[in-house]
Design goal:
This protein is of the alpha/beta class. The chain contains 16 helices and 13 strands. The longest helix is centred in the middle third of the chain and has 28 residues. The structure holds 1-deoxynojirimycin.
Length: about 525
Amino acid sequence: MSSSSSSSFVALILLLLAMIGKGQGRVDVRRIPADFSIGTSTSAHQVEGGWTADGKGQSIWDNFTHTRADRIRDGSNVDKGCDHYHKYKEDIELLGEHGFDHYRFSLSWSRLLPTGRPDNVNRAAVRFYHGILDELERRNVTPYVTIYHWDHPQVLEDELGGWLNESMARVFAEYARFVYEEFGPRVRTFTTINEPYVNCYFGYGTGAYAPGRRQPGLGEYQCVHNQLKGHALAYRIYDRDFRARQRGRVGIVNVCFQYYAKYPQQAELAERAFEFECGWTSQPIFGPEGDYPEVMKKTIAEKSRREGRNSSRLPEFSPEWIEIIKGSSDYFGLNHYSAMLVEELPPGLRVDAVDVQMMTQDADLLKSYDPKWPGTESSWLKIVPEGIRDVLNSIRKKYGNPPVYIMECGTSDGNGLDDNLRVKYLHSYMQQVLLAKKRDKCDVRAFTIWSFLDSFEWNSGYTEHFGLVQVDFNDENRKRTPKNSMAWLKTVLQSRQLLQPISLLPKFDELKL
Ligand code: NOJ
């Protein structure tokens, strides 16, 4: 090739590369933008322990694990747990050393307000949470504070019937007011309620979670209804009385799986599945018209009529409540772990007769997993990285591209310190999130890994290990040991590059040399 033809050949290649680049919106997907926050998360009941320390009241989970140990896979409880109550300084030092941008944790309502109401404040608990905030400040880690992560005071369950009672919404809002007053000057990001869907479905529907009530098809709907009201009241209080001075943001955290139709000719079923889960608790807040998804209202009303009821099992919001709830969130808090396949529920099949956990009866859906999806230590959690990008795009399209804070994403991994499965999971999911942000222009602003510590996994007890850090529960001192994933994350956080984990690189003998 002459030198002129070789230079035009090079020019042609460059032109082609530029065209391909343009077509795909070429961006440096590995670079983690400075304003994209990466953190990790826990919740009070799952890690704190100290269940009676310094005047703490009982929560529904204390009561449930003590009275219904048969419903916890290993019969365990969190009387001591990770003992984070006494070891928080050491824990936060680890967070700081590894360079996390933020730490998401929740407040224990019964520790702060043993009677559930602000008439009796436990000052020791207030000091404890200020201690956490002090340590985070010292280590330059931003706090994200969840006000309620499933552990309300038992006394509210006994007196009011918990979330089945509408007045719980007001009691919760007063608790939130107390939290803003006490901690608001130091916290910019509040979450009112974590995953209404899951805690209502298992707490008041199937009874697998505290408070263990079994009223499927009724209890979960009533509970979500009251939690959405409680959330919205708490949001409006912040807006009216605190926002101007505290300049923070308040939102809700919803769980959204990604659903795929098992048979391509049934594509509309994926949409139905989305509405019956993510849409149920999202549309009332983020949908342009508010209120529950039409498909839920219609289907449940029809079924209720056929059952001989004179009102729908799905409660109705008054026009006033629709307005109060609509728009009551400064961000979309997303918990996402996995995906499922859906198909039409065969007539006559009761969902509880098959091994599918999630509520599908009213949706007339049967859920399953693609056998090609790699499994994890949790039966419900399969690895489907593209699912998170698809969910982010659904949120963008349905709800007008709200700012999304991913508040939980992660996997269980039963391989102790050698948690290469977790590293692969996190690498592939974070890659999809960056694609959604950079290529699809989803306004996603934070990624929070569940979880910081191995901890109490609700009715699975200590049998599933979600932590980046191992906790030795046989050791009186609850020794912490960071797993391999922590070392990888440290390099990611330092370089602000989504580096290929060593475990994903080809082995030496696989290289074509
Ligand atoms: C969601 C919940 O918020 C959290 O408490 C739980 O441990 C994880 N999912 C994993 O199941």
